[in-house]
Write a structure and sequence with these properties.
There is one protein chain. By secondary structure, the protein is an alpha+beta fold. Helix content is about 30%, strand content about 30%. It has nine helices and 14 strands. The protein has helices spanning about 10-25, 35-45, 50-55, 90-105, 120-130, 170-180, 185-190, 235-250, 265-275, and strands at about 5, 55-60, 65-75, 80-85, 110-115, 135, 140-145, 160-165, 195-205, 205-215, 220-230, 255-260, 280-285, 285-290. The chain has a seven-stranded mixed β-sheet. The protein is globular.
């Protein structure tokens, strides 16, 4: 029988190795982390207060048998469960025990929960449904090996984007709130976070769109948000924003870029495919106590 406790000294490596094995298998993959062990170790260490929020299951000889990280938004009383993973595929009993133990530790501070498995991770999808989680619109995960910036379109090119300026912060925050209400990153965080790079594109002197990216611990780039105001769409601004950030990352030597987009947005999926991105998987978001639809 496994014992469950916070991460111990010297355990990050074995935990990352166990998670890597499960992440490489679509039937046990979840979002929020990559697949290679060193990158996973770096990503885990990048979460807020990760040591106290990462629970590890061990068998009698100390072998890591499972793990679950609680990524908490205390203001929203929301928990994004990063995991759970179990050494034995589909160990529903252990996954349930990990979630229940986290709720015991933080339950008084949690009203909302999310699990986000690969849609092929049937056992975790089933567990989520059994616990009362509701499936919302899935998102496709795209990736691009980055060697150079994508070629631009023939003909007229929209204005180039620029790094976020102090004068644009309020307008970008308002656009973010309008396009992504209730999402995991608040507008205040978006325009102030040190690790987030925000570029802005203008039309007729006003903010018309923005893109927010991060450099992941494994060295790859992640496009967290891209948005264009309703009145500025169908003018190539989204494509220009993407080409600008991809070009910037290529110059900086970033080897690959990842992003997610809801499956009910065919225009966006077509945009990314046209830029050379490949669709890798579909993530199924299960939510309890809140909704982003």
């Amino acid at each position: 029988m496994s014992t469950i406790a916070p991460l111990g000294d010297g355990e990050l490596g074995p935990v990352a190795e166990m998670i890597s094995t499960r992440q490489l298998d679509p039937t046990s993959h979840v979002t929020y982390l990559g697949c290679d062990a060193p990158g996973i170790a770096g990503e885990l260490a990048g979460y807020d207060r990760w040591r106290e929020r990462l629970l590890v299951a061990r068998d009698g000889d100390g072998t890591v048998t499972g793990a679950l990280l609680a990524d908490l938004d205390e203001a929203r009383r929301r928990a994004w469960w990063v995991g759970p993973w179990t050494r034995e595929p589909g160990d529903t009993a252990l996954a349930t025990a990990l979630i229940d133990r986290q709720l015991e530790r933080f339950g008084g501070a949690i009203d909302e929960q999310e699990l986000a498995p690969d849609e092929r991770n049937v056992w975790l999808c089933t567990l989520a449904e059994a616990r009362g989680f509701k499936l919302e619109t899935p998102s496709a995960v795209f990736s691009l090996e980055l060697h150079a910036a994508p070629d631009g379109p023939d003909g007229a090119t929209p204005a180039r984007s620029l790094p976020l300026r102090e004068a644009d912060r309020e307008a970008v925050a308002a656009l973010h709130d309008a396009l992504f209400p209730g999402t995991h990153t608040t507008s205040a965080t978006l325009v102030t976070a040190a690790r987030t790079d925000v570029r802005v594109i203008h039309l007729d002197g006003r903010v018309a769109g923005y893109v927010a990216t991060e450099l992941q611990p494994d060295g790859t780039g992640y496009v967290d948000f891209i948005g264009v105001a309703d009145e500025a769409r169908r003018r190539g601004l989204g494509s220009q924003l993407m080409r600008d950030v991809l070009g910037d990352m290529a110059v900086r030597g970033v080897p690959a870029v990842h992003l997610t987009v809801r499956v009910d947005k065919p225009g966006a999926r077509s945009l990314y495919a046209g830029l050379g991105f490949t669709e890798e998987r579909v993530i199924a978001p299960y939510r309890l106590g809140f909704s982003l639809t």
